[in-house]
Specification:
The N and C termini lie far apart (41 Å). It is globular and about 55 Å long. The protein has two helices and 35 strands. By secondary structure, it is mainly β. The protein has a four-stranded antiparallel beta sheet with strand order 3-35-34-33, with no helix packed on it. The chain has a four-stranded antiparallel beta sheet with strand order 4-5-6-7, with no helix packed on it. The longest helix is centred in the first third of the chain and has 4 residues. The protein has a domain of 128 residues: YVTN repeat-like/Quinoprotein amine dehydrogenase (Methylamine Dehydrogenase, Chain H, 7 Propeller), CATH 2.130.10.
């Protein structure tokens, strides 16, 4: 256990549990990293990035937002309650709607509805024309991005519940709930919805697969087991949204391990020691992980063996990765986007945005990555 973690204050009480900010404190109002960040090193670029367009979405305040894609459009949200639809090619704003509530997560979209969450546990939706469609009340703060698939809006609340709701009117279809440990990381613990399954990680190192139509538990796997004698030492939460890649689903736990499992049955494919809280990414050969010191790793998809490690971004609160062409892209707490060669992890290019933190991973489009900053800038960046 790190000394900086042991020294952190408790932030709030939630459903009988206590949560701490840890590595994610900068999402919830702190001024910078918990450890001294590495200085940016000069290198000879092997690629040329440029900002294709940028748009002003609005401040994220102390929360974490990222754009969602559907067809030729991107959707974005801000803490003041706006949901914005933009043309993906140009950044032109199609519409901007204020939901009338303060937002803390989102949006998720299927092109017919865009759904976001609030600090008070509300879920709000706007329709394809930008009109407010419905609002529903859940049990706890919503920090993770909702997802929509097969007409079901999937929302995870901060008290560990996962809800399946009608995307049409917000009526609750099912709820999945599990007991939580005494202490956990306060963070936007994500969900992934794919091929009729809802995949979610939980405190205590558990990874579950639910059926989207009724919320039934398909399987449960252990990514990492709690270790140590104190609650802080035993905290091993899966925070980043699980990665679903073909027949495999992969996850990484804080103060724990990383592993991949069979997406249909939950059988372990491989597992290894690696601590992190950022979402994973993958290409046809490697899985990419950012650890809790901001080292970026490439691991063999079939075995988990280490391929390379980029250790020159330590302490810069680096996001998870997005795969774009020959590169992966990660953001950091000063708004830089770093492009690393997929083959060896070497720096290929770097570009600045607006100087404020990029909190959630870049989102890859066909030929660019989108990043949303804490100050509310949305940037489309191409790299050649």
């Amino acid at each position: 256990m790190s000394l900086r973690l042991a020294a952190l204050p408790l932030l709030l009480a939630l459903a009988g549990c206590q949560t701490i900010g840890g590595y994610y404190d900068h999402w919830f109002g702190s001024s910078g990293p918990a450890q001294k960040p590495a200085e940016l090193q000069s290198f000879t670029p092997s690629a040329e990035p440029r900002i294709a367009w940028q748009a002003a979405i609005g401040s994220a305040d102390k929360f974490a937002f990222a754009p969602a894609l559907n067809g030729a459009y991107a959707y974005a949200a801000n803490a003041a309650g706006d949901i914005v639809k933009l043309e993906l090619a140009s950044g032109k704003i199609e519409w901007r709607t204020n939901t009338g509530v303060r937002l803390s997560a989102g949006p998720g979209t299927d092109g017919r509805y865009a759904v976001a969450g609030t600090p008070r546990g509300e879920v709000v939706a706007v329709d394809a024309a930008g009109r407010n469609a419905w609002k529903a009340q859940l049990s706890g703060e919503i920090l993770s991005t909702p997802e929509i698939d097969e007409g079901v809006a999937i929302v995870k609340s901060g008290d560990g519940r996962v809800y399946g709701m009608s995307a049409l009117d917000g009526k609750r279809r099912w709820t999945y709930q599990r007991s939580l440990p005494a202490l956990m990381v306060r963070s936007p613990a994500g969900i992934t919805v794919m091929q009729g399954g809802v995949f979610s990680g939980f405190p205590g190192g558990k990874l579950v697969a639910l059926l989207i139509n009724n919320g039934a538990l398909a399987w449960e796997a252990t990514v990492s087991s709690p270790r140590g004698s104190t609650e802080l030492e035993r905290m091993t939460d899966i925070v980043g949204a699980p990665l679903v890649d073909g027949r495999a689903v992969c996850a990484i736990a804080y103060q724990g391990r990383m592993g991949c499992f069979d997406a249909l049955k939950g059988a372990q494919l491989w597992i290894r020691d690696l601590s992190g809280i950022m979402p994973l990414a993958a290409d046809n050969r490697y899985v990419y992980a950012t650890d809790d010191r901001s080292n970026v790793h490439a691991l063999d998809k079939t075995s988990g063996a280490s391929i390379w490690k980029q250790d020159k971004l330590v302490g810069r609160i680096v996001t998870g990765a997005a795969v774009i062409g020959r590169f992966i892209a990660v953001g950091d707490y000063q708004g830089y986007v770093h492009f690393l060669n997929r083959a060896d992890g070497a720096f290929a290019a770097r570009i600045a945005t607006d100087g404020s933190a990029i909190v959630l991973p870049p989102v890859a489009t066909r030929d660019a990555v989108l990043v949303q900053t804490r100050s509310g800038g949305l940037f489309s960046i191409v790299v050649r």
